[in-house]
Amino acid sequence: MTHLPNDVPLPPYAQVYPGLMPVEPEPDCWTHPHIEVRPSLIAGDGLFATAAIPAGTVVSRLGGRLVTWTELQDLFADPAVPYVDTIAAHGDLHLVLPPGRPIGKSNHSCDPNLWWTGPYTLAARRDLRPGEEVTNDYATCTAAPGFAMECRCGTALCRGLITGADWRRADLQERYGDHWTPALLELIRAMSP
């Protein structure tokens, strides 16, 4: 097995997916101390800022375990697993978040106030006000075929329907620049001439 300079073995997927950062995600998720779960007007519960959070501040670092698309489909089909919260991580790999963590309550918005600043990191896209719901655009973290959900964000930019193909939209690519999960950024760059 290949080793890092500090003699930490590379995880098995680093052998299969060259270029993937040779560090596994943390086993758990972290959420900024000024974020709490509350009832949401968008859907169910959501995440809310309890104090002002400046633009650029890391609001959440996702953790969990990496699985392949096939393993993810097995999880979706398992009746003992009622819900799977996941993002596209890199190529065929998907990060499955541990159940019951606050970040799993993060709702979608077509004009989100969070965006991706690293493979597993969401930061404030703009200054967040106390009491504001903290949201991200699900299109920036999934390319799952067949994924579709009705949007209830109510913003002026609301698309009404969010799909696993939204990453192909030029308006979203322009709006978010490089603020996508690595898997989607790789797909977007492959589309460019």
Question: Which characteristics define this entry?
Answer:
alpha+beta; Beta-clip-like; 16% helix; globular; transferase; SET domain-containing protein; SET_dom; Post-SET_dom
In the sheet with the most strands, the strands line up as 1-4-10-9
Count of strand segments:
13
Structural class: alpha+beta
**Which architecture name does CATH use?**
Beta Complex
Strand percentage: 25-35%
InterPro entries: Post-SET_dom, SET_dom, SET_dom_sf
Pfam family, one: SET
Keywords: S-adenosyl-L-methionine, Transferase
Protein name: SET domain-containing protein
What does this structure look like?
This protein has helices spanning 12-16, 69-77, 170-176, 182-191; strands at residues 30-31, 35-39, 45-49, 58-61, 65-68, 86-90, 93-96, 107-108, 114-118, 121-124, 133-136, 148-150, 161-163. The chain is an alpha+beta fold and 193 residues long. The chain has a single domain, classed as Beta-clip-like. The strands form four sheets. The chain has a four-stranded antiparallel sheet with strand order 1-4-10-9, with no helix packed on it. The longest helix is centred in the C-terminal third of the chain and has 10 residues, at 182-191. The relative contact order is 0.17.
